[in-house]
Amino acid sequence: MAIELTQQQGVLVLTLARLDKKNALSQQMYRDLVSALEQAQADPEVRVVLFQGSADCFSAGNDLVDFLGGGALNAEHPTVQFLQKLASFTKPMVAAVSGLAIGIGTTMLLHCDLVYASSPCRFQLPFTQLGLCPEAASSLLLPKLVGLQRASAMLLLSEAVTAEQALQMGMVNELVDAPKLLDYALGKALKLAALPADAVQTSRALMRQPAAVAGAIQAELQQFERLLAGPDCQQAVRSFLQKK
Question: How far, in Å, CA of 228 to CA of 43, rounded?
């Protein structure tokens, strides 16, 4: 299984486990993530979800070849379903990030409540390099989190951000030594799960704007699909595949 599930003391741990592809997300992985989040939403025993990769890699983003074979970006597309599920999920989400966090590997973190990272970490959003635009409501959430100028450097210039820079910008809560990262993030998730669930979820909801996020996701998807069929993206994809 490319998505491994474990549960303890109110925390559902979702581990990206496709290490041979640097945890690049396939359509099946998106389906599995959506299914896991739906189960977590319905299960009162689950109070917190923790996303993690390996000690060396969180996610290299979309599996591009697999993604291109997924069809129209409509409500049936697994990627779209995952983005919408992230936006509508009502329980706290925590992430442990080490190594690469590219594309969706970074934008999904914007929906998490707590993010912990290790120093050998690189966040990057190479959408414009591929002739594409932001997704996962990152056009709304990233400027709100780090400011317009910093978000522009990431979303327009596709500039990478180190773990130390991400900490300064407010993208992550703390930096943790790589060997201790997964256990440390789990400890925080367990601490969160031990608190009164209604109070935590109510407080979380008050800090968020679900309608605005859902609207941003939809607006981005419309432009993303248009650009995906355009000549710039087609050329970028050809170049990428030739390099591979």
Answer: 37
Pairwise CA distance, residues 231 & 204, whole Å: 42
pLDDT of res. 68: 81
Q: What percent of the chain has pLDDT over 70?
A: 100
Question: Are 16 and 26 in contact, with CB atoms under 8 Å apart?
Answer: no
pLDDT at residue number 67: 87
**Closest by CA position to 123, among listed 155, 82, 86, 87:** 155
Residue 225: both structure tokens together: 């699909």
Q: Are 97 and 58 in contact (CB under 8 A)?
A: yes
**Burial letters 210-224, b for 16+ CB under 10 A, else e:** eeebeebbeebbeeb
Q: Does the domain made of 3-177 have the CATH classification 3.30.360.10?
A: no
Alpha carbon distance 202, 16 (integer Å): 29
Within the chain, which residues score under 50 in pLDDT? none
Question: Could you tell me whether strands 57-59 and 48-52 are parallel, antiparallel, or unpaired per DSSP bridges?
Answer: unpaired
